[in-house]
Sequence to fold (645 residues):
Amino acid sequence: MNQKSVDGATLEMLQVAKSQNIETVWDRWDKQQPQCGFGQLGVCCKICNMGPCRIDPFGGDLRQGACGADADTIVARNLVRMIAGGSAAHSDHGRDVVHTLHLAAEGQGGYAIKDPFKLRTLAAEFGIKTDGKSDADLARAVADFAGQMFGQQEGEIPFISRAPARRRELWRKLGIVPRGIDREIVEVMHRSTMGVDNDYKNILKQGMRAALADGWGGSMIATELQDVLFQSPKPIRSAVNLGVLRKDAVNIIVHGHEPVLSEMLVVASRDAELLAAAGRQGAAGINIAGICCTANEILMRHGIPVAGNFLQQELAVVTGAVDLMVVDVQCVMPSVNSLTGCYHTKLVTTSPKAKMPGVQHVAFEEARALDHAKEIVSLAVEAYSRRDPSKVHIPDGRSDMVAGFTTESVFQFLGGRFRGTYRPLNDAIIDGRLRGAVGIVGCNNPNVTHDSAHIALTRELLKHDVLIVTTGCAAIADAKCGLLRPEAAYEWAGAGLREICETVGIPPVLHVGACVDNSRILTTLIEIVSEGGLGDDFSKLPVAGSAPEWMSEKAIAIGFYFVASGVLTHFGTPHPVLGSPAVHEYITKEIEGQTGGRFLFEADPMKAAAQIIAHLDQKRADLKLAPAMYTPVESRQAQAATVGA
Ligand code: BF8
Fold:
């Protein structure tokens, strides 16, 4: 990899790391080259102790593992186990939010119901009588109802009923409606263990069922109940990149995924006693900044700045200005443990599910959440007194942004102040002002120049009048180069998209949250279909998804729930399936005949954009819509070339 990043602050901090002989993820990744070809192709099987076995991808003698499993079986089993891992992560997060809603109902832990309207809306959807009931009673009932989706054994998980009727019928016909969240994940593990399912299509069918249990189950529960507990996001201004760290304040990085802790840290950072303690140490305040999806959660609801995305977690520590990094679960590199040892930075783990050897663990119990949050903030204040100013190097890089869009809020914008409706959005697609919409989501990965694919793909689609919704580390990448500012519509959007954005004052790239909030993209699609005029199913819509720099198993789970929901989904690098031409053919072509969605693997973002645009245009033609109204204007993109990377 020649260029490590397109982000100036990242490149600057990589130089600092190098000057201090600090090893980063890029260095370790380089040392791993060449990576194991069998693993990359998906043909290494470690499922039983007759192995590890591998298949010769060049057609030599090694065509089966010791048990007789061929490449198709091995690749499919490995892939569905990735889906199970990703679905488990999102869904276990959802389970913790259910638990927190229970605590809020009991008045414990300092949690409250901040969005009673959404609580009542959800209760009504679940068939819970709302008349005369207190918020606490309803919270208990909603938490019970949502909680049982995890252990449900038969039938269909209730959120499935949100999908259009045609989609539900199709899922039933295919036999992929999730019965219960935990059940589908367990069944993936069972079917893919030694000597069970060896029909690759049948294995992948169960993979889709588990992925749907994530998107329409665990992730959707997490999003909906977090809105109830912590309030539904509203458009909010903030700032992003390592330049949000402050020389004069106690800096706390919150890193991980679950907002049940970070929400309380925000409260604790405003505590008068702790602010006074910080002042006594000479600090001008307590500055909280996020990394990864926790960042997105507290950004969306409180406007807390974002320090960076996945590949910047180590570089935040290298600034020498982070007094404390507090982590919970998912996407936390084990390397931050040894790295923080090179600085004054205090590292704290909080989840019983995710400890690190030798690292202080503040066992975060939701029932005593505020107390624990205060303890963590006071550890940060203490660490600030040990900060070595000569080691502090904070890059200037930071950008303004607007985040906090939701299925409900953005289209209140589009539909006018008094009546939220999707009509203007649907009409904009129908008349061709908008070509379509694409969700750009997912991670960073050192196998792609950091942020480059997110930004290039986003800009190219904007130019072609494609509205972008974004989550996770992709959203942070786009934010860092200014694409989440309303002005970006003028700088990058085609004429049709720009007209819409300028009329309603929104950016052309809408930040809809963390990775669990990809469920907001599903609920947005539901609204578009039910508004009418664009067909009766997701697969008819001129929409697509993309994870240009994916890394995590969670991205695979998300990809599969979008494909199973009928959406073309692009991944920048292929899934580890190339060792089985049959599995590759199935998930990139044949599956479209079943679910209406398929995967597209393309590393070059410009080529990917061209294929996505062709797909949107085909969907428009199938719906007998006029072609997109405007042709892209190259010159404005050139004019704006000074913005961002
Ligand atoms: O859940 S985008 S690197 S932080 S996995 Fe992780 Fe990927 Fe970032 Fe959030 Ni999502």
